[in-house]
Amino acid sequence: MKIDGRLIAENILEGLKSRVEVLRKKGVIPTFLVILVGDNENSIAYIKQKEIKATEIGARVEVVTLSEKTSFEEAKELILKLNDDPLIHGIIIQRPAPKSLRVDRLSDEIWPEKEIDGFGNDALYDVPVAEAVILIIQTAFEQMGKSENFKDWIEKQKIVVIGKGETAGGPIIAHMQKMGLNPQVVDNKTQNPKKISKQADILVSAVGKNRTVTADMVKRGVILIGVGLHTDGEGKLRGDFHRDEIAEIVSFYSPTPGGVGPVNVACLIGNLVEACEKQSSL
Prior knowledge:
Elements: H1 5-25, E1 31-37, H2 41-56, E2 60-66, H3 72-83, E3 90-93, H4 103-109, H5 128-144, H6 150-155, E4 159-162, H7 169-178, E5 184-186, H8 193-197, E6 202-205, E7 223-226, E8 230-231, E9 237-238, H9 243-246, E10 252-253, H10 260-280
Parallel strand pairs: 1-2, 1-3, 4-5, 4-6, 6-7, 7-10
Antiparallel strand pairs: 8-9
C-alpha cells in the first residue's frame, strides 16, 4: 500500500496555519532564510518547494545565494549577522555545499534557537527528514490497526537503513538511536547487504541511486521507505526503487516523489513556527 506523503504533509501544514495566524496578529511573520552556495538545480528546486509551502500558511522564505568561492569566514560573518536579525527566525544552509565551506562547523555558528534544520551540535530541533521518516512509519502502523502503542511496536521491529550520508541516512540513524532504537546500517562496505536487507521489517533506503533496492532484497510484508533521490536521463526525480518491482511484495511503501519529501518540508516549517513562537515570546 502506498503511503501518501503529500496528505501527511497537508495535515501538518493545516495544523500550523492557526499558529501562524496568531503570530501574524502580533505583527510577527515566521521567516527563515536559506543560504544557497552555488546553483545546484536540485537544491534550487527543493528551496522552491519550501517557499511554496511556507507561503501557503502565511510564513516567509528568503534566499541568499553565495558563490562557490565563498570562504568559511565570509559565510560565518553572514550567519552572525543573521543571528542578530530579529526578523529572521530560522537559518538554513542548503546542503550539499562545497567541502571548503565546512558546513558542519558553520551549522554550529547558528544560534540553536534559529537552527531549524537540526544539524548543529546544540540544535533544539529534530532534523526534518528524520522526523518525516518516523511519521511515515507511524502512518503505516496506524493503518495496520494494531492495539499496542507505536513506541512499543517499533522497538520490536528489525530496522535496516541503507546509506549514512550527511543529509539523510546519517541524521535518520542518529534520530532513531535517540529514540532508543537500534537500526542496522548498510553502506558500500557492508558484506552480504542483500541478506541484511531481507531481514528487515522496516527498510529505509537513503542512497540516491537507481535500483538501490530491488525485489530480491526485501521480504514480503516489509515497510519500505524511500528517501534517496536522483535525476534520471530525462531530468526527472527518481527514487531508490521502482514501484512496479516492489509494490506487490511490501506491505507499505513511500513513493518518490510524493513520499518523504513533502513531509520533510512540512516538518521543517513546523520547526520554523515553533522557533518563531519561542523567539516572539522573549
